[in-house]
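Form P-L/3: holo structure prediction, ligand heme C.
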Amino acid sequence: MRGLRAGVAAVLAGVLAGCGGEEGPQAAADYGEALFQDARLSSSEYNKFSCATCHVTTAEVPAGRIDSGHTLYNVAARPSWWGGDETQLLDAVNFCYVNFMRGVTKLGAEEPRSRALYEYLSRISPDAQAPALPFTVVKDIQDVPRGDATRGEAVYRAACQNCHGATHTGEGRLTDLASVLPEVTRDYDRLFPGIPHAQVVIEKVRHGPFFGVGGNMPLYSTEALSDADLGALLMYLGL
Ligand code: HEC
Ligand code: HEC
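OUTPUT (holo model):
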């Protein structure tokens, strides 16, 4: 009995001495990594996006991925986010959470989930001097020169396919809410009379849900998707 008590006391002393303190942030970061990859972070039954749907976390972006969001490698070290519009990391995260993931209420600063995400984002941010990243939004929509359809197919696979599924069928799409491309444009003469179909698609890609467009698809800055790649994509889609 005495031996057991002494053992328990020794374990407790170890915890108080800092073992637990070391494990705390580590366990929180692991939890944060799980949250990062889980669409259920948002309580909306309509949401199918996790943070990992739109952001890689590696220093180099893997071949075959074109994401609307920057890599989050070093994100916690950046001095500002969203092209300088956000100066608090949690606000930068909540912008995505509310606008893209249909999170109804923002993640609160004191919530364990926020702390866990913070610990995870800190763990993937080794360079304290990491600069803010550029984020250039195309405000006035203009047509872009069409490019090479083979390149366009690669762009579609890297940028659109995960959410929209295969062209013409939507097979494998992440959510039924993502329209079948390019067939959805057949309705555009009725919905947007007199406006070229490509123009509507360019506006969606460049503005996402913003500038009065609506929805929850992310927007693509020119850093995320160049006009050249957008022009190749339109050629591939026959627009
Ligand atoms: C549907 C796509 C999408 C989802 C889902 C998403 N984001 Fe984003 N995120 C973006 C886009 C687009 C931007 C703006 C471009 C950029 O700055 O990376 C952005 C920007 C950010 C930024 C600012 C990066 C910077 O340096 O400017 C942070 C931080 C961020 N997201 C974190 C998250 C986290 C954490 C989650 C999950 C809770 C998440 N995002 C979910 C698309 C998304
Ligand atoms: C993160 C998931 C996601 C990605 C990536 C994505 N989309 Fe979407 N997209 C959606 C969802 C969901 C909708 C329907 C809701 C909305 O309108 O925002 C949509 C809607 C659209 C629409 C409007 C369809 C209509 O109803 O008129 C177009 C056009 C479109 N996407 C094109 C693209 C193209 C082109 C790409 C690749 C450059 C792309 N999307 C990438 C999720 C995505």
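COMMENT: The longest helix spans residues 2-36.
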